[in-house]
Amino acid sequence: HWVPDEQGNSCTNCHVRFTTVTRRHHCRRCGMLVCGHCSTHRTPLPELKYLKPVRVCDRCYEELLRQTARAAAPAPSPSASPTLAAMSTGTTAPAAASVAPAASQAAEDGGSEDDDEEEP
Length: 120
Fold this sequence. Notes:
The chain is of the alpha+beta class and 120 residues long. 18% of the residues lie in helices and 13% in strands. The protein has helices at 58-72, 84-89; strands at residues 25-26, 33-34, 41-45, 50-56. The strands form two sheets. It has a two-stranded antiparallel sheet with strand order 1-2. Strands 3-4 form a two-stranded antiparallel ribbon.
């Protein structure tokens, strides 16, 4: 699912044209070509055998966050709903902590980043 460099001359997300200044990057999850502004996150993808954080596009990162939040959310039960008293005071039971994929802001585009290594 890796899009060859020759097949894309603009970002899949924002459609900015790739130039020597605006570099193309591959999302390691979906394989699409994106610019640095549309791929600011890195996260491990163990299901794809990437155990260290790798570049993912912002769309994939948001999807991973939603999946992680759903997986961490407790199953709803009839007795788990907040009481009327708690709702009227604006307090509720603490939410389950969600574990987000590891992320770091991407370095500015350009420089010596070797981003287009082969996929596993």
